[in-house]
Amino acid sequence: MHVIWDWNGTLVDDLPIVVECVNAALREIGEDPIDADDYRDHFVRPVHRFYESLLERSITEQEWATLDRTFHERYAHSLDRVPLADGAAEALDAVDARGWSQSILSMWWEEDLTACVVRRGLDDRMVLVQGNRNDGGGTKAAHLRLHLETLGIGPSLAVLIGDSLDDAAAARELGAGCVLYDGGSHHPAELKKTGVPVAATLTDAVDLAAPDGP
Ligand SMILES: [Mg+2]
To answer: Which of 3.40.50.620, 3.30.980.40, 2.60.40.3140, 3.40.50.1000 is the CATH number of 2-13+83-209?
Structure first.
């Protein structure tokens, strides 16, 4: 078995900082700030639809460019304040203890992602760390296809552990397994509607990823 970890909202607990960065972006286009509940109520990919859902209106190309640029600039400045999620280290150990391999697949820019993974000393245990190379705010399925091809692993032997509806959609499209962790970008009730197992902790997520159950 192979576990593919999502990064933001799964292995790192960045929701408070993400909300700060969204608010910096909204301020740039003259809109009011939101809180974490608003974020979880509206988060969706592609990301420009998230802002449209929040603002209950369409956004212009120029506004989208400003939002995306401001968010990423602000987030890059906040990197050192982003902690590993509760139980992340134990969950990575649990994957190793089962004799499974593991990797990271994120929609965040690959260079920044890799630097963060290395800084936390997690790169040695990952067979692949893949971030976003070219696609501002798209969906995860195409990235998951490339990830599986690079790994040379069939989807039936892989389980994606993530925190978003987009993680579940990507796994479904490729035929991979999926477990959702409810500490991230969506409310648990929304995650449960996907029909995939939902875990309250990352170690529970690893247990649920086992083909024969916990
Ligand atoms: Mg995530």
So the answer is: 3.40.50.1000
Q: Which of 13-27, 73-87, 126-140 has the lowest mean pLDDT?
A: 126-140
Q: Could you tell me the distance, in angstroms and rounded to a whole number, from the CA of residue 91 to the centre of ligand 1? A: 16
In the block, which residue shows the tokens 């976003």? 132
Q: What pLDDT digit, counting tens, does each position of 157-170 carry?
A: 999 999 988 999 99
CA gyration radius, the chain: 17
Separation of CA 105 and ligand 1 centre (Å): 10
Query: 190: CA distance to ligand 1 center in Å?
Result: 14
175 Cβ contact list (under 8 Å, min separation 6): 155, 156
